[in-house]
Design brief:
It is built from eleven helices and 15 strands. By secondary structure, the chain is α/β, with parallel strands linked by helices. It folds into three domains: about 35-225, Zn-dependent exopeptidases (Aminopeptidase); about 230-320, Immunoglobulin-like; about 325-420, no CATH class. It has a six-stranded mixed beta sheet with strand order 2-1-3-6-4-5, sandwiched between helices. A five-stranded mixed beta sheet has the order 8-15-14-10-11. The chain has a four-stranded antiparallel beta sheet with strand order 7-9-13-12, with no helix packed on it.
């Protein structure tokens, strides 16, 4: 059984203007914002696995490569950020948050691999999730792993490839999972430090610089085909969508125009494809989402520019008129009173064993109790609302043949954790 230890390196793209390649190539990465994430850090006291046979630690290698990479990318015009610049630990959530805060275009995590079998040594590059739903990250991952195989030395030169991080974690890696909604990202694994020959190479700063140059070459090849981008014509926060509404996106190919392969366009609302139409003259993609029965919708735009680079399908969230109606009761007290009224009718329905009325009033009571908490969690009757939610779930479980055991257990735990009550004790 192989045990791999990943490293994380991040490159990110600016959410403002789409980066455009400098045609004169003096600064070919100008306008591109990259987050470099040297994996791990400050683990020597407790981590006895991420170390080679001669004592070289993975986090040291990651940081040396990342520091070289930062300087090389700056020389080529990129705006570069790093999650750490010394041997310190940074939480996984913090690494992803930094990429978001700095509005990066690419997230590049730099790691090196480890294994119980010290004969293994080849490159790996990970992307998050399903390849079809993360095409821009896959584009970059495939370029990087090929450059690693061509320019770096490994004991198994033919072994490298690009893989989904779902192969190592059921939900993928934390840093890629928490940046994929905003930007393409990859984790590069530039060989095995647990292989004696591999460790010796990775101890060399000359070889570390060479590895950094490989990342640069891969990024230059990727960026030369443009970093395409879809931008909403109107900010999602400004809208409450009605059923008749369409949404328009302005598409830029990353090369100064809007040249795209029309047959490649696809827009997903959740996991369902919705109609879209492309105007190649204006560069506007018009999308017709499904509004009915939705309070909030999430759209992702897929496509490729004429040079072959994929749009990164970042998530765009839109509120609908249904959401607006949900919040028409702006006062938590009014919402709670509505919940109590519906719950009173629910109790009558339970006595009458009226299944249809139980279904109706339990859903309405749940809606208003939850709304009262959403509008103001720390209100004087918050615990009553939480108890009302629990009672509604129990009634639905008993009378509507619903398996709500998990939801009921969670609600009981929530009550115990967040709403403690004083127990009266009798003096001896």
């Amino acid at each position: 059984m192989y045990i791999f230890f990943s490293f994380l390196f991040t490159i990110t793209t600016l959410s403002g203007n789409t980066p455009v390649m400098n045609k004169e190539n003096a600064k070919p990465l100008e306008g591109i914002r990259i987050m470099i994430d040297p994996g791990h850090g400050d683990t020597a006291l407790y981590d006895f696995f991420r170390v080679g046979p001669a004592g070289e630690r993975e986090e040291w290698i990651n940081l040396r490569v990342a520091n070289y990479l930062k300087e090389l990318l700056i020389q080529r015009g990129a705006t570069v950020f790093m999650t750490r610049e010394s041997d310190k630990d940074v939480g996984l959530g913090g690494r992803a948050a930094l990429a978001s805060i700095h509005k990066c275009d690419l997230f590049i995590a730099i790691h090196h691999n480890g294994c119980l079998y010290d004969t293994l040594d080849y490159p790996l590059v990970y992307f998050w999730g399903n390849a079809e739903e993360n095409p821009a990250s896959v584009d970059l991952a495939l370029i990087l792993v090929e450059e690693m195989k061509k320019q770096m030395t490994f004991e198994q030169q033919e072994g490298g490839s690009a893989y989904s991080d779902f192969l190592i974690y059921s939900r993928g890696t934390s840093v890629l999972r928490n940046t994929v909604a905003l930007m393409p990202g990859i984790i590069g694994e530039g060989g095995f430090f647990t292989n004696p020959a591999g460790e010796k190479r990775l101890q060399s700063e000359v070889y570390n610089l060479k590895e950094a140059e490989v990342y640069v070459d891969a990024l230059l090849k990727y960026a030369a085909k443009g970093l395409p981008k879809a931008t909403p014509a109107k900010e999602p926060s400004d809208l409450f969508l009605e059923e008749k509404d369409s949404i328009q996106f302005k598409l830029q190919d990353g090369l100064g125009g809007h040249a795209f392969k029309e047959q490649e366009f696809k827009v997903l609302q959740g996991q369902q494809e919705v109609p879209c139409s492309w105007d190649h003259q204006s560069g506007i993609l018009t999308v017709k989402p499904q509004i009915k029965d939705h309070k909030v919708i999430t759209l992702r735009v897929f496509g490729r520019n004429q040079r072959g680079n994929a749009l990164h399908p970042k998530e765009f969230h839109y509120k609908t008129v249904n959401y607006q109606q949900w919040h028409t009761l702006e006062d938590w007290k009014k919402a709670f009173e509505q919940g109590e009224m519906q719950f009173a009718q629910l109790k009558h329905a339970v006595k009458a064993k009226n299944t249809q009325a139980i279904r109706l009033h339990s859903e309405e009571a749940l809606h208003f109790f939850r709304l009262s908490l959403e509008l103001q969690h720390a209100n004087p009757v918050a615990r009553k609302a939480e108890v009302g939610i629990l009672d509604c779930l129990v009634i639905q479980s008993q009378f509507l043949n619903k398996d709500l055991s998990e939801e009921i257990a969670k609600q009981k735990s929530r009550l115990a954790a967040f709403y403690p009550i004083q127990t009266q004790t009798q003096d001896n």
